[in-house]
Amino acid sequence: MDVEDFREHGKEMVEYICEYLSTLEERRVTPSVEPGYLSKLLPQQAPQEPEDWATIMADVDSKIMPGVTHWQHRRFHAYFPSGNSFPSILGDMLADAIGCIGFSWAASPACTELETIVLDWLGKAIGLPEEFLAFPKGSKGGGVIQTSASECVLVCMLAARAQAIKKLKQLHPSVEEGMLLSKLMAYCSKEAHSCVEKAAMICFVKLRILEPDEKCCLRGDTLRQAMEEDEAMGLTPFFVSTTLGTTSCCSFDNLPEVGPVCKRFPAVWLHVDGAYAGNAFICPELKPMLGGIEYADSFNTNSNKWLLVNFDCSTMWVRDRFRLTSALVVDPLYLQHGYSDAAIDYRHWGVPLSRRFRSLKLWFVLRSYGISGLQSYIRHHIRLAKRFEALVNQDRRFQVCNEVKLGLVCFRLKGSDELNQKLLSNINESGRLHMVPASVNEKYVIRFCAVAQNATEDDVDHAWEVITEFASELLETQHLEKVASVYYSGVAWLVTRGGRTCLRRLALFILRTCPVASAIYGFLDPSVLVGAEGYFGQLGSHATPSTLPLTIPQNRRKTNSWHEKEPQRRIRSQILTDKKQPFL
Ligand code: PLP
User: Fold this and answer.
1) CA dist 48 to 41, 60, 190, 443, 560, Å?
2) Which residues contact 71 (CB under 8 A, 6 or more apart)?
3) Which of 197, 211, 507, 573 pairs with 460 at a CA distance of 20 to 30 A?
4) Cα gap 196→209, rounded to integer Å
5) Whole-angstrom distance, CA of residue 231 vs CA of residue 244
6) pTM here?
7) CATH assignment of the domain containing 100
8) Distance between CA 321 and CA 131 in Å, rounded?
9) Who lines ligand 1 at CB under 6 A?
10) Could you read off the pLDDT of 363-389 as tens digits, one per residue?
11) Ligand 1 pocket check: which of 188, 195, 249, 300 to mutate, most ligand atoms within 8 Å of Cβ?
């Protein structure tokens, strides 16, 4: 492809993207495919000869798109938002075209300097303490863009580990580092993201997962008690990861309590993970939720979640960049340059050496929307979540299960976990909405997140209509199953107790009349009952209610325009609903 081809196909691609994003609603939100679908459609080897662009794009439409989950769809309410906006897409396009690998200042000065500047802009807008910024005179702090929140937590834990080992080594110079490592203890709440556990696995340190309070919030006393116990056992607390806006239910650890506890343990590094919620602090009225940040050593938030920036763009700030980099510096000759002392080399701030020019898209977004535009976006999502919360609260069959502070509502049908599991899997299988579950206070809940950039009140109302439609149907089915079960129990009682021929005859008579009754109810498959008659015949006096076959066909689901557009096949791949482990 030469530059003229690129000019032409680039324009076509922009057209394709515009068409895709503006007609998303005509598609199912989740694909209707099963694992391995694509390998049946694509050849097993790369083509030996070049193919033309039109053929490749035709395959995008016919083979790739059918397997895509549409995260930008108005009916997508799963996980947290996946940031997306036109300025950000354009920023990524330009970064890809420049194609620099900005591991050091010298490797591409603008790449490094823009990152430092926009991270200061964003840090100020969020309301981080000055020590986290790079530019105030004498500051040791600064921000960096990492690939993911998981990576932010990992590098902070690595830095904390290096710092703790160094301190222990000073106290016990003759003890091997491996032995010192075995003494280190990290802490987080049960509600923390699983990436903390993964970081501890990678760092080869112990992690104590603490019980939060009834609002899913880690409290200072819980942490203090755990740290004191561990210290008394000869262990060294070295890292605490707190969360502002947990994944399951968007709860907030009590940072004003946890912070002072950490200060009592000099080796401890306090990290604050605000992967989703941290973006909201650009709104002045939400800044109080950041209270306690003055105790933290590091903070991260994903602009690529809730600030209209495309993945990847996970922003992280540290109070002392030298403590961070001391754990990660390696300095071969081929990477050195003459300005090492005067400039930031981001290769020392993370795991990878190579880095994309990610600050461009963040810069484009900050300038195109302005802080005020981004504040409106955040507030709009919160309003949508509040509307959804009000709808749930108006329906006595449901309950809201979290304190709705931002864009996430956790709710459930009053009833068993199984009932809610069934509800969610029915909804997800329909392809009309997509949500994921979580466990909140040991209960299975459904998470509804405001996700699409331009979602409206109508979208929320539509989602609620779909949810209540499925719920009504499920509850009705459940009720009918209960009625049927009582009926069968009665029949079974007659069969088991009815030793006399006349009673058994009566039972069989009831069974024969059953299809008539079921026709009146209009839901039971007569063959089940005919089958049951044979079953009774076989089992005779051993039949009990629990051994009776009982099936209620689920064939009465209503359809609407969303549904009718796609074949009614089962979706399997994308849904976490049926897995025991909730949303991770
Ligand atoms: N921390 C929190 C609070 C999250 O909600 C998530 C993901 O949703 C993560 C960390 C992990 O994010 P990433 O995928 O960027 O590693």
Assistant:
1) 18, 19, 52, 54, 46
2) 82, 84, 451
3) 573
4) 10
5) 26
6) 0.83
7) 3.40.640.10
8) 10
9) 80, 148-150, 193, 195, 243, 246-247, 273, 275-276, 302, 314
10) 999 999 999 999 999 999 999 999 999
11) 195
